[in-house]
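Example record

One chain of 524 residues, shown exactly as stored in the release files.
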Amino acid sequence: MKRYFYFLATFSFLLMWSSCRKDFEFTPSEGNLIFSKDTVYLDTVFSNIGSSTYTLKVYNPSDRDISIPKIKLQEGQNSNYRLNVDGMTGDIPLSGKEFSNVELLAKDSMYIFIETTIDIQSLVSNQTQFLYTDAIEFGVNNKQTVELVTLVKDAVFIYPQQIVGTDGSTTIETLTFDVDGDGIDDETNLQGRFLEDNELVFTNEKPYVIYGYAAVDEGKTLTIDAGARLHFHANSGLLVTNTASVHANGLPSSDSDLLENEIIMEGDRLEPGFAEIPGQWQTLWLFNGSTNNIFNYTTIKNSTVGLLVDGNQDDPSKLQMTNTQIYNSSNFGILGRATSISAENLVINKSGQSSFAATFGGNYNITHATIANYWSNSFRQFPSVLLNNFSVDADQNIIPNDLVSANFTNCIIYGNDNPELLLDNVPEADFNFKFKNCLMLFNDPNNNFSGPYYNFSDSSLYENVVFNLDPEFLDPQQNKLQIPLNSSAAGLGVNAGNLNTDITETLRPSPSDLGAYNATDFED
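Predicted C-alpha cells for this chain:
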C-alpha cells in the first residue's frame, strides 16, 4: 500500500510540474534551413502510374525553436507532386500541396516524403516522354527552395475492363477460353482480356504496360517488333491460347547497353532499385495448343516464371528460341511441361528454383546455351537443369509421359549450388536424354545419386562432357555470363546448330566455345 501511495504522489508531482511548464516559444524561420539534397530526382515513371516515395530531410541548425510560416509546392494546387511533412498531409487535408506554420525544434530535423502521379497528356501532346519539374518552397520572406525533377514516359496501356453489375457491384474482367481442349470455353480466374485485332502488333514507338493477362485468341498471332518494350504490372503476364502464336522479332543491337533492337520484357517499376528484383510479374504462358511461337533477341527478366510452356510435345514448331536471355525468375526461368522446345544461343541465370526445367516428358533440343543459376538466396532446392518424365495430380497419383528427347549440345550448366543437374524419372515412361560437348557442375562425393542415368562414362548419355571446371564467368551475380579466353569452356565445342555466330553476333571460332558467348578478352 505504501508503495502505491509513493507512485501516486510521484505521478501527481510530475503532473503539476508539467502543467506549470511554459510552452515552447517558436520564432519565425529566417531562411537558414539545411537540406539533405538541393534537388530531388524522382526516377522515371509511366504516365498515370504512381511513383515510389522519396525523402528529403530538413535540418534546423540554429539554437532556437523555429516555425516555418509556409512549406508549399511552387505550382500550388496544380502541381502533380504531393508531400507529406512529418506525418501531416497539408492545410487542405490529404492534398499534400501546402503547409502552414510548421514547427521545428532547435538542432532537430524532419522528413518530407514526396510522390507523384502524372498524366503526360495533360502536360503535352504528341510526346513520348517529358521532363516534369516543380520545387518545394520554404518560408515567405526568406524563401528557400528544393527542386523536384521527374522523367515521365507515355505508354500504351492494356488492361481488363471493370464490369458494373445490376446491383452496383464491380468486378474485373476475366479470361474465358478452352482450357482443357474439349472445344468448350471455360471460366478462369485470370484477370485480363484478349487483344483486339488492331492490338496484335506491338511496335517500338511507345512502351506497353500490361495489367492482368493480355491474351492472344485462337488462330491469332501477336507480332512484337524489334526494339519493343513490354512492362507487366504485378500479377500480370502474356497468355497465348490454342492455335495462337507469338512472334518476338528482336534484332541485334549496336549498343550493348541500350540494346535498342532487343525486345525487353520486365516489370513496370522503372526505378533503379527494381531493376533486378525477381517476381515482379507472372509469366509468358504458351498454352497447350499454341504453336509456331518464336523468340529472337529477347530479354525476359524479373518474372515469377520466365516462360511457361505447355503441351504439343510432338510439334517441333511449338517454341523456337534464338539469342534469348532470361534473368531473375523467382521460380523457373523456363518451365516446360510435356512440350517441345528448340533453343540456340540461350542464356538463363538466377532462378529461385530451376533455370531450365523439362518436366512431364517432351522434346527438347538445346544448343550453345549457358544455363546457370546464381540465385542470391542462401538456400535453393532445385538445380540449374531438371529433367523428369512424370507429373503428379491432385490426389498424388503419378502420371507418366515419355521424355522423347532432351539433347544438350555445346552447353554450360553451372551455378552456385551442387549438383546443378537432376534426373528424376519413373520406369513407366521413356527417359531419353544426351549431353554432348558440355561443361557441367556435378560433384557427388557421398554418392547420393546413383543408377544408370548417372553413369557419366556412358557415352550414349554423356559424350565429351567435362565436370566441375569453373567457366570463370565475368560476373554471374550481375548476369554477366561471358567467359574469358582461358576459360575451361573455351574450344570444347562441336559443329552443331543452325547459327554460326554467338549471342553477340560474333562469328564462332572452330572449334567453337561452349555456351552462348564466344570466349573474349575481358580487358578489351
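Notes: Confidence is low (pLDDT under 50) at residues 1-22.
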